[in-house]
Amino acid sequence: MTSTTAANDKPQRILVEGDEDAICEVMTSMLTAAGHECRVAETPTKTLDILNSGERIDLVCCGLTNWADDSFKSMIETTAARTIPVIVSSGTSDIGLMMKVLGMGCYDFLRRPFTRGQLVFAVLRALQHRRLKLENFYLRDKLGLGSGIEIPLSLLVGRG
Q1: Which fold would CATH assign to domain 11-133?
Q2: Model pTM score
Q3: Comparing 156 with 79, which gets the higher pLDDT?
Q4: Is 38 left (phi over 0), alpha (psi -120 to 50) or beta?
Q5: What pLDDT score does 2 carry?
Q6: Which of 19, 40, 107, 145 is deepest in the core (most CB within 10 A)?
Q7: d(CA 58, CA 8)
């Protein structure tokens, strides 16, 4: 019997992609200090390559500047299909842009500059949300109610 909680016994893998190398370094340092494993993608194309490779990624933290609308939407669809939350960070205070990004399916939007506490809190909330979704899928599947997803649960919890 496979449980979704077993997947949370190991450090969560976070894919970090940002507009600037310094921002990626700071985010990676903060998240590593909080006990997470980080993988850095230098470009949106590399982010999509990693997500499409089947590598276990539990969360994506990314910026907005380097993304074209179509590739950003593709990334959101890829992560949503695998129940991977996306946290976007940007220096903009444009509420319309924030609403657009959240409406596309991002889990959260962090306005820069943010503190270590704000980043870690957003990541913990997003990972907890993911865990609850996976447990819901797992329990629905075990009860014979159908999980409501089109890919095997083993892929979502890193056992495929």
Answers
A1: Rossmann fold (3.40.50)
A2: 0.83
A3: 79
A4: beta
A5: 43
A6: 107
A7: 10
What distance in Å separates the CA atoms of residue 117 and residue 3, rounded to the nearest whole number? 30
Residues in the chain: 160
The CA distance from 19 to 25, in Å, is: 11
Element housing 118 (H / E)? helix 116-142
Higher pLDDT, 70 or 122: 122
What is the residue type of 115? T
Which residue type occupies 56?
R
Tokens 């496979």 map to which residue?
2
Question: Do 62 and 17 form a contact (C-beta atoms < 8 A)?
Answer: yes
Residue 35 DSSP symbol? T
Quote the mean pLDDT of the chain: 86
Residue that is written with structure tokens 């924030």 in the block: 98
Return the domain boundaries, the chain: 11-133
Mean pLDDT (whole number) for 76-85: 89
Q: Return the pLDDT at 160.
A: 45
Mean pLDDT for the stretch of residues 37-51: 94
